[in-house]
User: Fold this.
Amino acid sequence: MNWKHMTEKQIIRTARKLARPFRITNGAKFRLKDVDPGDTLDFSPDDKAELKERLAANGIRMLAALQDKLYADDKWAVLLIFQAMDAAGKDSTIKHVMSGVNPQGCQVFSFKAPSVEELDHDYLWRCVTRLPNRGHIGIFNRSYYEETLVVRVHPELLEKQKLPPQLVGKHIWKERFADIRHFERYLTHNGIIVRKFFLHVSKKEQKRRFLERIEDPDKNWKFSASDIAEREHWDEYMAAYEDMIQNTATPEAPWYVVPADNKWFTRIVVAAAIIETLADLDLKYPQVGPAKQKELAAAKRALLTKK
Ligand code: ATP
Ligand code: MG
Assistant:
């Protein structure tokens, strides 16, 4: 196939094929060890240049076209959640994949450690206020899932949450998973489509990227000493991620577990997943009725007859 001249249908079909192996809709069977962070499907590093071009030529263009319809239709909203260990490439994936979309229809929020005001509320509060409007794509760079990740790995964070002590029992993570599942179902019933991405980087590749951040002066700003401290908890994080995906991957709000040791591959899978999601909505530009058509004809006449 000459991919430089792919039709929309061909792009969507290719996107589905690329995204499918990484989409988890039933958490029960999920095992993190089954996903190789270095996986690149049938592609080899030699295909990297071509894939980059393919993403630029087709993927980004397709995403822009679909987003334009989402915006015009103004009914659905799409929430894309990104979770990962440090240096897995969340920021750069978001930057590349969304590079062609109209900024007017896209909102990105990064969730850091909660503020004093945020800790004075339930943990979904700060996320609820940032949900995307209809017609928009909302991106959460980290999210309420941190409540089952960093907070689980560091129990002292849970203590700061001012929860009534009798509510903090051994079932708290199961309860959080259930609440999150129900919340995402609620969003789905409201026309907010939720898709979640775990960029799965290996511990070895993270080390390489950290060293690069330390050695390259232009990347120094990205490095923080706390990143090394979190790395010490690698296995606990992996266990927390696995449990989170097992408990929150559902048909209406699937997780995509995306191999993240090769950035060119991560980007193409994430773009494919977003294309697949938007294509499933079967978006159409709103068609105008007879009254509006009359109005358009009258406006055209007026424009053409007057100077
Ligand atoms: P980068 O990948 O570029 O380092 P980042 O997303 O890691 O970006 P940071 O400035 O390092 O950004 O801050 C995010 C930190 O906030 C993470 O360590 C994360 O675990 C923490 N965080 C996010 N949500 C919560 C939460 N609900 N409770 C406690 N900590 C949280
Ligand atoms: Mg960080």
About this structure: The chain has one domain: 3-305. Residues 3-305 form a domain with the Rossmann fold fold (CATH 3.40.50.300). Residues 123 and 147 are 8 Å apart (CA to CA). The chain has 13 helices and six strands.
